Amino acid sequence: MSSILGSCHCGRVKWESIGDIETVVRCYCSICRKTQGGDYGVWVVVPAKGFSILEGADHINKYEGTNVSSKKYCSVCGTTVHCTNGNHYPGYMLLARGTIDEGNELSTKIQVYTQHKYEWIDVLKDSPAVF
Description:
Elements: E1 3-7, E2 14-18, E3 23-27, H1 30-36, E4 41-47, E5 51-55, E6 60-64, E7 69-74, E8 80-85, E9 92-96, E10 110-112
């Protein structure tokens, strides 16, 4: 069992995840690109039951992206705290890889929605494309 600590950019929101990591996903879908502001999103998928806010719960806002997916973020700096994806990962939290305070070993394990990637982005050769 592992413990992961993370925080937002301004440091007001801090969180912890206790439990085994399900996977690390690189997603090329338009929702991830828009909500993360990059060419793709990288998510560490952890059990929801092991996730807790340590500090700053009063600074968290929620965005309902779809009827089964949402994002919680720091209302001060805008950093994603976590996302849910009820289509592919019910019962799990998706933690934005960049918010994890330590964890260089958390490399991408799978890739999804590769058909939606920008033309100039290379798909990782060592990580299978799942859907």
